[in-house]
Amino acid sequence: MSRIVIENLSKVFRGPGGQSIRALNNASLAVNDKELLVLVGPSGCGKTTTLRLIAGLEEVSAGTISIDGQVVNDLPPKARDVAMVFQHHALYPHLSVYENIAFGLKLRRYPKPEIEKRVREAAELLDLTSCLARKPDALSGGQRQRVAVGRAIVRRPGLFLFDEPLSNLDSQMRVQMRAELSRIHKRLAATMIYVTHDQEEAMTLGARIAVMKDGFIHQVAAPINVYQHPADLFVAGFIGSPPMNFFPGTLVQKAGALFFQDPIGDDTTSPNRLELQLATEIPPALRAYTGKNIILGIRPEHIGHQLSLPGVPPHRLIEAVVEVVEFIGPETCLHLADDGHSFVARVPSSYRVSENQKVSLVFDLTHAHFFDPATQKAIV
What we know:
Layout: E1 4-14, E2 20-31, E3 36-40, H1 47-55, E4 62-67, E5 70-71, E6 82-85, H2 97-107, H3 112-125, H4 141-153, E7 159-163, H5 171-188, E8 191-196, H6 199-205, E9 208-213, E10 216-221, H7 223-228, H8 233-238, E11 245-254, E12 257-261, E13 275-277, H9 284-287, E14 293-298, E15 303-304, E16 317-328, E17 331-337, E18 342-348, E19 358-363, E20 369-371
Parallel strand pairs: 3-8, 3-9, 6-7, 7-8
Antiparallel strand pairs: 1-2, 1-4, 4-5, 9-10, 11-12, 11-14, 12-13, 14-20, 15-19, 16-17, 16-19, 17-18
Helix pairs in contact: 2-3, 2-4
């Protein structure tokens, strides 16, 4: 298998008017041998460009790509021992499943017994044995995608690259295929890089995820660490559904305690002013922001009614009006507003509320995040 290292990688395209379009900015990343790493971010962030640079389908503008310690910038794609699965299946409609999977091996003039062996093994792994004689138009969307994966598997490459392979499937099929890809990764013990814009897909598939935006890699970590300890405002807002709530404000010292206050109104007694007392143990990095502007971030599941968040003191309570109620099975998402804030809370579905109802909610600030408004970096 393969270990991939990209260092200070950049890619600049030329626009129709000759202008420079920077798709990747000085990106550095290491993918361990046998690891499944997911590149995730919004459309146009540079995910697919990174994949195509690694595969050799695009020319590097700056930086290096190394596979198992060898710089491959100048190697053609066929010399990199890489197999790529694209968003579109690109199957040959006039060939059977067997012939589609075997096509690359035939081009490389593998012996017929070896082709037969590899195709049968891949078909068994992908549950396609009963479909080998069918043409692509007789397959479901999930089966076609598995054929595309099988075509890559039979080559036994050192590195698999997946470019949003599930984006054309319906939601139920996507969940099924995610589980199958995880199973395939464990069976093959292969190095894989997977690109998606779906953060749920990234969180469930990757051993680590790299979050990208505008050609920059913002954070690389295990999914749970990205969720619980986002590196900056973008990662905090992109990872999580519904996304994290943000409140700009100031840290103030009062009566020996530290409070977060929003900037609404000059009157500190205004009912619209959000004022929340922080925990007694304040990290020094956060205490250094006393008297300064700051951004409070809190996830919807850490805002709830007092029964759902026992032990949270009443001085972390806010009143708001319910604008929208979203029932999602065991939980309900409440879209709330007061005169100065809009935010989302996630509560148990047993908590019955209706639109336009005024509710009192508590903030569990033991799970709060704080960000520097100038750098947008996480403080704690």
